C-alpha cells in the first residue's frame, strides 16, 4: 500500500513546483466538485418542488438580470487576479497587500452605490410588466429582488478571497468554500420545503444567505492566518496601484460586459420569445451538460495563474506542454459528453420525472455548445494569463451584436426553437474558436510581438 501511495505522490501529484501545484489542486478540486455537482442536481427538483416551475423560471430570469451588476466590477477582480499572481511569482508581498486593500476599498464604494441605485429601481418600477409576469407575483418578486441585489453586491466584496486563493494557485480551497455554501443551501431549502409555504422571497433567502455567511467566516479565518501578510487595511490603500489594476481591469471589464450580454440574456430572450416554462427547460438542459464544463474548468482553472507565473519567468516550454495536455483532457471530456447525450432522455426522467420535458434537439445543441466552449477556453485562459487582451476586447465588442441579431433572426424569421440561442452563441464565440488559438500560435510558437501580446 505504501508503495502505491509513493507512486501516487510522485507520478500523479509530482513534477516541478508549478506543475505539482496544479495537479494537487486538480485532484482535490475534482473530489470537491463531485460533491458540488450532486448538491446542484439535488437542488433543482427540490427547488421546483418547493415553489413551482413558473416561479423557478422567474427566479432564474431575475438572477440573470441581477448578474448584470457585475458590469460595475469594471474588471477589478480579474485585474487583481493577474497582478497578484505576478506579485506572488516574485514574492513581493508588500505590493500584494496594497493591491488587495485597494480593491476592497474600491469595490465597497462601487457596490454600495450600485445597491442604492438598484433598490430605487425595484421600489419604483413594475418588474412584472418588463418580464410579462403575472401581477400576483409583484410583492413577492420585489422582496426577492431586494435580497438578490444585496447578495450580489456583498458577494462581490467578500469573494475577493476567492481571487486571492486562485492567484496563489490554490483554487481547490476556493472550491471547498463554495461546496460548504452549497451544502448549507441544500439544507436550507430542504428545511423550508418541509416547514413553510414556498415563495420567491423565501427561496431567495435560502439560496443567498448561506454563501454570504460562509465566505465571511472564511475571509476572517484566512486573513487571520494564511494571508495575514496581505490583510486589507486603510493605510495600504494606494490609488496609484488602482490605475494598474484598472488598466488591465478595463479590458477584462469589456470582455465581461460582452459575456453577460451574450450569455446572461439567454433567459430573458427565452422568456420574451417563448415562455417561463421554456426558461426552466433550457436551464435544466444547461445544468445537465454544464457538468462537462464544470469538470473541465476544475482541471483548467489553475492554468490561468500558472501561465501568468510561467510567462513572468519566461518558461515558454511549460506553457506549450500545458496547452498540449489540456487539449488531450478536453477530447476525453467530450467523449464523456457524447455518452451523456445518448443517455440524456433516460437521465432527465430519473432526475426530474415528468415535471418538465426536454427535447433531444435542445440536448444535442447544448452538448455542441459546451463542446466548442471547452475547446476555446483552453486558449482564452492562456490569453488571459499573459494579459494580452486587446484582440479579445475588440472581438467582444462585436460578438454580442452578432449573438442578439442571430437569435432574433433564427427565432422570428426561421421559426427555430430554443436551440437557436445555442447556435447563435456558438457562432458568436469566434474569439474562442478562431482568434484565441491563433493568438496562442503567434505568441508561443512563432514568438511574435505587436498586437498579439497587447
Order of helices and strands: HHHHHHHHHHHHHHHHHH
Structural class: mainly alpha
Q: What proportion of the residues form beta strands (DSSP E)?
A: under 5%
- DSSP E strands, number: 0
The separation of the N and C termini measures: 51 Å
Instruction: Please bin the fraction of helical residues.
Output: over 70%
Number of H/I helices? 18
Give the low-pLDDT segments: none
Largest sheet: none
Taken from the alpha-carbon principal axes, the silhouette is globular
Radius of gyration: 22 Å
- Kindly state the mean pLDDT as a whole number? 83
How many separate domains?
1
SSE blueprint:
Elements: H1 2-12, H2 17-50, H3 53-66, H4 76-89, H5 93-124, H6 127-131, H7 138-158, H8 160-167, H9 171-193, H10 200-224, H11 239-273, H12 276-312, H13 316-342, H14 344-352, H15 360-386, H16 390-413, H17 419-428, H18 430-445
Can you walk through the features of this model?
- With 454 residues, the chain is mainly α.
- The protein has one domain (13-453).
- It has 18 helices and no strands.
- It has helices at residues 2-12, 17-50, 53-66, 76-89, 93-124, 127-131, 138-158, 160-167, 171-193, 200-224, 239-273, 276-312, 316-342, 344-352, 360-386, 390-413, 419-428, 430-445.
- The chain starts with a helix and ends in a 9-residue tail after the last helix.
Key words describing this protein structure:
454 residues, mainly alpha, globular
Brief account:
Helices cover about 80% and strands about 0% of the residues. With about 450 residues, the chain is mostly helical. It has one domain (about 15-454).
Amino acid at each position: 500500500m505504501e508503495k502505491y501511495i509513493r507512486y501516487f505522490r510522485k507520478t500523479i501529484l509530482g513534477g516541478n513546483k508549478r506543475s505539482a501545484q496544479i495537479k494537487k489542486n486538480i485532484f482535490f478540486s475534482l473530489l470537491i466538485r463531485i460533491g458540488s455537482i450532486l448538491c446542484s442536481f439535488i437542488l433543482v427538483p427540490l427547488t421546483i418542488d418547493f415553489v413551482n416551475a413558473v416561479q423557478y423560471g422567474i427566479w432564474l430570469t431575475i438572477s440573470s438580470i441581477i448578474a448584470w451588476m457585475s458590469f460595475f466590477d469594471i474588471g477589478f477582480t480579474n485585474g487583481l487576479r493577474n497582478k497578484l499572481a505576478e506579485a506572488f511569482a516574485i514574492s513581493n508581498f508588500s505590493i500584494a497587500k496594497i493591491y488587495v486593500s485597494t480593491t476592497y476599498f474600491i469595490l465597497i464604494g462601487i457596490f454600495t452605490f450600485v445597491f442604492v441605485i438598484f433598490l430605487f429601481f425595484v421600489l419604483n418600477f413594475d418588474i412584472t410588466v418588463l418580464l410579462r409576469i403575472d401581477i400576483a407575483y409583484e410583492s413577492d418578486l420585489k422582496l426577492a429582488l431586494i435580497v438578490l441585489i444585496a447578495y450580489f453586491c456583498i458577494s462581490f466584496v467578500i469573494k475577493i478571497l476567492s481571487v486571492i486563493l486562485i492567484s496563489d494557485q490554490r483554487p481547490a480551497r476556493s472550491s471547498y468554500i463554495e461546496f460548504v455554501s452549497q451544502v448549507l443551501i441544500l439544507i436550507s431549502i430542504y428545511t423550508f420545503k418541509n416547514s413553510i409555504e414556498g415563495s420567491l422571497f423565501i427561496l431567495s433567502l435560502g439560496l443567498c444567505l448561506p454563501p454570504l455567511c460562509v465566505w465571511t467566516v472564511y475571509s476572517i479565518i484566512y486573513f487571520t492566518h494564511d494571508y495575514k501578510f496581505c490583510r486589507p487595511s486603510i493605510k495600504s490603500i494606494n490609488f496609484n496601484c488602482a490605475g494598474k489594476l484598472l488598466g488591465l481591469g478595463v479590458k477584462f471589464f469589456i470582455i465581461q460586459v460582452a459575456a453577460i450580454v451574450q450569455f446572461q440574456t439567454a433567459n430573458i430572450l427565452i422568456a420574451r420569445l417563448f415562455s417561463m416554462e421554456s426558461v426552466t427547460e433550457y436551464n435544466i438542459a444547461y445544468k445537465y451538460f454544464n457538468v462537462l464544463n464544470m469538470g473541465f474548468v476544475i482541471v483548467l482553472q489553475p492554468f490561468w495563474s500558472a501561465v501568468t507565473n510561467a510567462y513572468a519567468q519566461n518558461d515558454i516550454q511549460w506553457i506549450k506542454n500545458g496547452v498540449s495536455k489540456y487539449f488531450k483532457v478536453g477530447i476525453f471530456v467530450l467523449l464523456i459528453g457524447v455518452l451523456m447525450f445518448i443517455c440524456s432522455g433516460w437521465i432527465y426522467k430519473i432526475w426530474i420525472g415528468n415535471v418538465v420535458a426536454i427535447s433531444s434537439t435542445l440536448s444535442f445543441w447544448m452538448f455542441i455548445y459546451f463542446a466548442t466552449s471547452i475547446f476555446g477556453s483552453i486558449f482564452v485562459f492562456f490569453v488571459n494569463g499573459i494579459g494580452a487582451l486587446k484582440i479579445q476586447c475588440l472581438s467582444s465588442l462585436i460578438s454580442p451584436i452578432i449573438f442578439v441579431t442571430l437569435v432574433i433572426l433564427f427565432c422570428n424569421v426561421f421559426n427555430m426553437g430554443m436551440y437557436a440561442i445555442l447556435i447563435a452563441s456558438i457562432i458568436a464565440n469566434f474569439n474562442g474558436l478562431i482568434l484565441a488559438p491563433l493568438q496562442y500560435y503567434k505568441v508561443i510558437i512563432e514568438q511574435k510581438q505587436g498586437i498579439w501580446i497587447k
